Amino acid sequence: MIRVEEAEIVAAMQLIYQRLKIVVEPSSATALTAIIKQKHQFLNKKIGVILSGGNIDLTQLPFGK
Q1: CA–CA distance from 27 to each of 5, 9, 12, 19, 44 (Å)?
Q2: Which of 13, 36, 41, 48 is least crowded, fewest Cβ atoms below 10 Å from its Cβ?
Q3: Tens digits of per-residue pLDDT, 14-44?
Q4: What does the alpha-carbon distance between residue 16 and residue 36 come to, in Å, rounded to a whole number?
Q5: Model confidence, pTM
Q6: SS3 letters for 27-51?
Q7: Residue 5 in contact with residue 38, Cβ under 8 Å?
């Protein structure tokens, strides 16, 4: 189990949006947040992350548009 902070989740959401042009919901970005936070655990490993975004209000994104 990897504990992540809300600000880290928002940063992951922003990274996904900037790099992939995909808006994801916070619960989906949590997986990427954990990977980023503990990247040493995942070095040289093949991993997959499922990103979903149907449950977010685009007018309330937690980062600048």
Answers
A1: 12, 8, 11, 18, 25
A2: 48
A3: 999 999 988 999 999 999 999 999 999 999 9
A4: 12
A5: 0.85
A6: HHHHHHHHHHHCHHHHCCCCCCCCC
A7: no
